[in-house]
Amino acid sequence: MFRLFASPPASPLHARLATSPLFATLSPRELRIVGTLIHERHYLAGEVIFDQGDEGQAIYTVLSGRVAICRQGDSGNPIATVAAGGLFGELALIDGGPRSAQARALDDCALGVMFRGDFTGLMTAHAAIAGKLSFQLARHYAGIIRRQAAATEAAP
Amino acid sequence: MTRTHNPAGPLIWTLGLALTCLLLFLFQKALWLVLPVLFALIAYYLLLPLKRRLLLAGVSHDGAAALVGTAIFALLALLLGLVSPALAQLADAVQEGGMRYLDGGLRLLDTALRWLENRFAFAARAGLATEAATQVASLREGLAARHLADAALTAAVWLPSVLLVPFIAFFMLRDGWRFRRFLANAVPNAFFERTLLLLDRLDRTARLYFQGLIRLTVLDALCLALGLWIIGLSSPLLLGVLTAVLAWIPYVGSIAGCLLVVLVAATDYPGNPSIALAAIALFIGVRLLDDFVFMPMTIGRSLRMHPLLTVLMIFAGGAVAGVTGLVLVLPLLASVMAVGETVGAVLADPRLRARHRHALALRQAAVTRDLPPPA
Q1: Which residues 195-224 on chain B approach chain A with CB closer than 8 angstroms?
Q2: Any CB–CB contact under 8 A between B359 and chain A?
Q3: Cα–Cα distance, B128 to B100 (Å, whole number)
Q4: Which strand (E) or helix (H) includes residue B192?
Q5: What single-letter DSSP state applies at residue A101?
Q6: Are strands A67-70 and A38-43 parallel, antiparallel or unpaired?
Q7: ipTM rounded to 2 decimals
Q8: Across the interface, do B362 and A48 touch by the CB < 8 Å criterion?
Q9: In a domain, B362, yes or no
C-alpha cells in the first residue's frame, strides 16, 4: 500500500542519467522525476539524429555510444564528438532557433531525449531541479567557451 | 537551409474539415461512450495539475493517480453526504415548482400576446393569445403521463454511461502518460521529434480548451448569479450555474438558459414584467461580456481559428450531429487540425522520408551483416 505512493525504484535509465554531467548534481529523487520525462531511443551508426536547420524540439543526452556534431553534408569532419554522458541539441532548445548543426550517430548508440515542453515545464515547476540544471548548463557553456579560447590561442 | 514548421495548406484544411464532420457523425452513433469520455476528459484535465504536483514531489505515476483519485472521491462523498438533505428538499421543490414556473412563463406569454393584440390589429384578428392558450392546454394534457416513463427509461439507459465517467477519468490519470510513451515509442527515429511535437500540441489544445471551458463556466456563473441576486430573483447561484453549464451548447444553450431565467422572473414577480426584462438585459450583457472578454481570455486562446470558420463549423456540427455536434465541433476541429498540420508537415517533408529510408537501409544491413548473399 505504502509502496504505491513511494518514489519509483531507480531503473537502469536513472543510473545512466546520473553519469551525465547535466544531471550529475540531482538527488536520486530528483533524478527519478527527470527520468519520467526522458524517452530512450536507439540509433544505428551513421543514422541522422537531426539535421542542421531543423526546428529544435528536444534536448539529447548520450547514454551509450558516440554522436558526431557536424556541418550538413560534411559528416567526415565533425565539429565535435559527444561521448556517453554528454549533451547535445540544447542550443536550439534554449534560444528557440533552428538546429545549428547536424547530429549523426558515430556508433550504435542509446540516447535519452527530453522534449521541449517537458523540459520547460520542469524548469518552471520545480525550482530546485531548475536551479541545478541551469547551473550545469552554464558550466557546460563555460567549458565550450574555455575550449574555444584555448583553440584560438593555440592557432598560429 | 532552415526547415521550419509550416501552417496547414488548403488540402489539409479541407481534409480536416471533412474528417471533423465524419467523426461527429460517428460520435453521434456512439453517444453512450462519447459523452462519458468527454466528461472524463474534463475531469482528467482538471485533476492533472494536482497529479503533476505530486509527480514533482517525487511520487510515482500510479501513486499520484491513486492519491488524487482517492482524495476526489472522498471529497465528493463528503459533499454528497453534507448536501443530500438539501438535495432531497430541492428535488421536492423542483417537482412542485416545475409546473409553477411553467405557469409563470405561460402567464408572461399570455400577457405579452394580449399586449400585442391591443397594439396591432393583425395580432387581434389572428387571436394570438387565445390560439396560444389552446395549443398550450392541449400540449399540457397528459404531459407527465406521456413523458415520465420515457424519462425513467432514458435515465436507466444513461446510468451505466454516467458511472463510466470516474472510471475512465481515473485510468486516463493513471495511464495517460504510458499511452503517450507507447505511441512515441512506435514512431521511427526520423519522425520522432515531430511526433513529440504533435502529442504535445494535441495535449495542450485539449488541456487549454477544457480548462478554459471550466474557467469560463465559473466566470459566467458568478456574473449571472451576482446579477440575478441584485435583480432579486430566487436561487440566483443555482440559476447562474445552470445557465452557465447550458452555455456549453453554443447558441441553443444560451437561448435555453435565457428562457429559464425569464420563467423564474415571471413566476417570482408575476405582475412585474420589468423584472423579466431586466433578467433578459442581464443575460444579454453577460453573453456580450462572455463573447468579447471572457471567451478570448479562456477558450479563445486554445482555439486559434478564424471567427467566420468557427461560426460555420458550429452550424455544420449542429447539422451533422445535433446538440452533440454543437458541443464537440470546436475542440474536435482543433484536435484534428493539430494532427493534420503535423502529419502533413511530416509527410510533405522529403528529407524526413529520406532519413527514414536511410535508417531502414542501415537496419537491414545490420541484421544481414553475418548472412552470406544467396547463391
Answers
A1: 196-197, 200, 204
A2: yes
A3: 23
A4: helix B192-231
A5: S
A6: unpaired
A7: 0.83
A8: no
A9: no
Whether A41 sits inside 8 A of B192 (CB atoms) is yes
What is the dihedral sign for C-alpha B123, B124, B129, B132? negative
Tell me if A39 and B196 make a contact (CB, 8 A cut-off).
yes
Domain tally, chain B:
1
Q: Which range marks the domain in which residue B167 is found?
A: 10-356
C-alpha cell at position B273: 414584467
Per-residue pLDDT tens digits for B65-88: 999 988 988 888 888 888 777 667
The answer as to CATH 3.40.50.300 being correct for domain A11-143 is no
> pLDDT by residue (tens digit) across B332-352?
888 888 788 878 877 778 889
* SS3 category, B233: coil
Are the beta carbons of B193 and A125 separated by less than 8 Å?
no
Whether residue A66 contacts residue A109, with contact meaning beta carbons closer than 8 Å, is answered with: yes
**CB < 8 Å to B366, chain A:** 44, 108
Within-domain flag for B1: no
B170 contacts: CB under 8 Å, gap ≥ 6: B65, B69
List Cα–Cα distances, A55 to A91, B187, B353, in angstroms: 11, 18, 16
Dist CA A79 CA A74 (whole Å): 10
Closest alpha carbon to B194 in B75, B356, B360: B356
